[in-house]
Amino acid sequence: MSKTIFLVDDSATILMSVSAILGKAGYSVEKAGSAEEALKKLNAGAKVDLLITDLNMPGMNGIELIKEVRKLPAYRFQPILFLTTESQQSRKAEAKAAGASGWIVKPATADDLLNTIKLVLR
Amino acid sequence: MTHTQAPSAGAAGAAALAVTDDMTVYSARARKEELLSALAASTELELDLSAVTAIDVAGVQLLILLKREAAAQGKTLRFSNHSPAVVETIDFCNLAGPFGDPMLIAAHSAG
Amino acid sequence: MDELTATFIDESRTLLAAMEGGLLQLEQADAGDDNVGGIFRAAHTIKGGAGVIECRFIEAFTHIVENVLDRVRAGDIPVSPGLVSVMLACCDHIGALLGVLVAGQPAPPQEVAAEGDALRAQLGQWGDDDGQAADCADGSTVPLSEAVTASGGGVVSSDAWHISVRFGTDVLRMGMDPLSFLRYLTTLGEIVTIETLADAMPDAAEMDAESCYLGFEIRFQTRAGKAEIERVFDFCRDDCALHILPPQSKCSDYLQLIQELPEDAMRLGEILVRIGALTQAELDAGLAAQAQPTSVEFDGDESGARAPLGEILVGQQAVRQEVVDAAVLKQATVKDRKIAESRMVRIQADKLDQLIDLVGELVISGASTHLFAQRSGLSELMESTSVLSRLVESIRDAALQLRMVQIGETFNRFNRVVRDASRELGKDIRLAITGGDTELDKSVVEKLGDPLMHLVRNAVDHGIEPAAVRAERGKPHQGTVRLNAYHDSGSIVIEVGDDGGGLAIERIRAKAIARGLIAEDAVMSGAEISNLIFEAGFSTAEQVTNLSGRGVGMDVVRRDIQALRGTIEVRSTEGVGAAFCIRLPLTLAIIDGFLVGVGSATYVVPLDSVVECIELQETTTGRNYLNLRGEVLPFVRLREMFEIGGDVPARQNVVVVQHAGQKAGLVVDRLLGEFQTVIKPLGALFQHLRGIGGSTILGSGEVALILDVPALLALVTSAEEKLVSPAPSRGRPSGTPDSQHLILQPSE
């Protein structure tokens, strides 16, 4: 049974490229173009083994999404990664404080991405 | 969840218990209470781990805690019928020795 | 081009437009951090996307732009007109680079590259080297330790790495399983031995099963460097105690490790011996030496004073500082949230068109089924088809909604046009946009660009007076061009206005007479004269500029608008300003129609324009108007208009239609009821037909013509106007000469 990874990013380019990489690596991929959409899907009972979200999104941002997801009983202990490009320690700390497990620095190679996923998947 | 099996013949106060679900952090709190009270209710407990398909660090430390409690209370606690997932994890953490229970289904160590 | 690249290009163009919009806003007013953030994010996302599709030339250039914007965002660089101009040029350049990518060229051609170099040089004044420095600073905080040299005596016998880790109690709540990290280690090398320590776990009563209390001592053999091993623990490093000793570390390092770890020294010593990190002899010697107050020494080596190689423990203070930073940042992100941008799913336009086509077919066959059901007289069937009709109607609406786009994006393009044009002319003009969220069909929007451009340029060029004239007239120094859009009974109205000089009525009149458009003695209202500018070949510009003095006049604009089944008119007050008002149907594809019959022919009247239906009282023979509750209603007999033969039935009906405030009646034989229909464009053969907007296929398979209500209204009113002032005009004569004074008052 393949693990399901949920991608949340407002960039269609990122969504498409990352899901292509994940799909090729044998993961099932769920996508959402915004934090609001992601929450809706999770609330609707989407089963997800790992959530990967962008931080800078219009509307609800990634940090807020992480906080909300952590409140859902089914996701209390699921790994959550965030995508970040800015080499900002404070941003990382904020996301971690919100309950994120780890991060992926964009632009990441396919190997970086898959390795990080392998690292945190339960 | 867990359920008690028919007490093993012979030893008084001896009980057998099977964990019928995963041993992950999601159920760790409930599991801890169940297993501790099962231990408290018997002098000798055999824990059947055959149905544990997933175990994480929370499960591992629960097993450690139970062993420690049993030792502190002077009771005997045995883990038996380890599922492949449990064998793999106990083996990975190098806890087979400290736990001291024979692990029968250790596929990779069969040779 | 692959799908990913296509997505990137599409997305980047949208982002560039947003960037440009943001920059223009930045120039106009201090729009605050949200705006700068949005501009930065746009550049940032383009750069990220370029990296994904490996388009290096876009990535590299956008990176520089992003760095400067980052510094603007941080407040290091003040916003200045110079900055905005360069940034706008950068937007253009990124657009050009996207063009290079679209063209499939591997690198920008020389002139584009030269432009890029020039911009880089200009950006240089705001310094782009900081970004790179920051990147480096973040890279790795701990230097690699591959240069650990074997230094003879004092080195322990093992050649494996030693990893000592105590996980933070919250690690599970952070969504991490420490075992996942340890298992991941095996992809880098081999775990020789591992020891699980549960010493930190409290008694059963206090033990929280969701907290993590475990620690591990690991002997690890790998070719990987220290940084790579550290990276495995990156995510939990802030709250775990991690020590990594490279192979052949000194005894003293291990002893220092023992001291730093929470567990009892003897017990740790045993563990280290058991897993092979130290020999018993080394341990004994070490512990003995520790017992003495002197510094630790082994085999005469002075290594005790050395800083531990593996020390990467994060100090508590550093963690606290980050928490403080996080709190500050949290407030900033709440602001970010306010920037609501429209979220959308991208689909290819042709897929959408296909869907709309299918919905169109569905509508036709649904209507046909409904007609048959009505004829059959089976009430159950009729009931079910009416439910079906409602559903089809909803599907139609939803499908058309998919094609609806906000006009704001189109409007915003003109910010740049107005800015550049006004600079060129030395005028100070601002563009005021309202109603940007008004939606209309994408196919309409696409064709609206050119006419709007013409009108806006016209307003900037000819409408707004030079500063001196404005001052003379007591107007504000800054001129205003307005773009506005709103919905009005099934139409969308788009207004292009300005507070400039307005139209010079007398000049237009003189010119119209000179061109033979109107008779010298024609009696016309100011509004009528104003609208003469839409006649072919009309141009009032006294000086030809390179902006709108293209020789082509408003006739082209009107033709464009008419092609969209729309109308355009102008309202003007000399010296105060002018406003062009464009009225368009919401969609070109499907309409709700009202079916009418004349003789054997069937016509469709767009339902939006139908006001009411009345029976024709044939008391006003020969007069083409009737009294509608005291109001004069001109009408046109479709039978005459389309030259339909056959007997006139005893009772005829009038469909009262309305468009842009004008009303008229259409005299028909039969009223056949509402009908939903798909518009099929007329073939070239029929395009000269006045009053016909298209055709459709009825459920019965017959073809019905769709009436062009605005055109019919124009015909009716021009026919009546002719009675008032018999100036040269088109349309066939109708009515009687003696009725000419009656047009302004009730007839009966």
Automatic annotation (TrEMBL), chain A:
Presence of keyword Cytoplasm: no
InterPro entries according to UniProt: Bact_response_regulator, CheY-like_superfamily, Sig_transdc_resp-reg_receiver
Positions of the Response regulatory domain: 4-121
Keyword Nucleus: no
Gene3D superfamilies given in the database record: 3.40.50.2300
Pfam family, one: Response_reg
Modification sites for 4-aspartylphosphate: 54
Highest taxon above the source species: Bacteria
Coiled coil: none
UniProt KW keywords: Phosphoprotein
PANTHER family in the cross-refs: CHEMOTAXIS TWO-COMPONENT RESPONSE REGULATOR (PTHR44591:SF25), STRESS RESPONSE REGULATOR PROTEIN 1 (PTHR44591)
Protein name: Response regulator
Organism of provenance: Aromatoleum buckelii
Automatic annotation (TrEMBL), chain B:
STAS domain ranges (all copies): 13-111
PROSITE patterns, A to Z: STAS
Domain of life, per lineage: Bacteria
Pfam (any one): STAS_2
Entry-linked InterPro entries: MlaB-like_STAS, MlaB_ABC_Transporter, STAS_dom, STAS_dom_sf
Database matches in PANTHER family: BLR2341 PROTEIN
Name of the molecule in the record: STAS domain-containing protein
Organism listed in the record: Aromatoleum buckelii
Automatic annotation (TrEMBL), chain C:
EC number: 2.7.13.3
Organism annotation: Aromatoleum buckelii
Record-listed Phosphohistidine modification sites: 44
SUPFAM superfamilies hit by this protein: ATPase domain of HSP90 chaperone/DNA topoisomerase II/histidine kinase, CheW-like, Histidine-containing phosphotransfer domain, HPT domain, Homodimeric domain of signal transducing histidine kinase
Gene3D superfamilies listed in its UniProt record: Histidine kinase CheA-like, homodimeric domain, Histidine kinase-like ATPase, C-terminal domain, HPT domain, SH3 Domains
Catalytic activity: ATP + protein L-histidine = ADP + protein N-phospho-L-histidine
Residue segments, region Disordered: 723-748
Name of the featured protein: Chemotaxis protein CheA
Taxonomic superkingdom: Bacteria
Keywords: ATP-binding, Chemotaxis, Kinase, Nucleotide-binding, Phosphoprotein, Transferase, Two-component regulatory system
Enzyme class per UniProt: transferase
InterPro entries per the UniProt record, alphabetical: Bact_Chemotaxis_CheA, CheA-like_dim, CheA-like_homodim_sf, CheW-like_dom_sf, CheW-lke_dom, HATPase_C_sf, HATPase_dom, His_kinase_dom
Domain CheW-like positions: 590-718
The HPt domain, residue ranges: 1-101
Domain Histidine kinase: 388-588
Biological role: Involved in the transmission of sensory signals from the chemoreceptors to the flagellar motors. CheA is autophosphorylated; it can transfer its phosphate group to either CheB or CheY.
Transmembrane spans: none
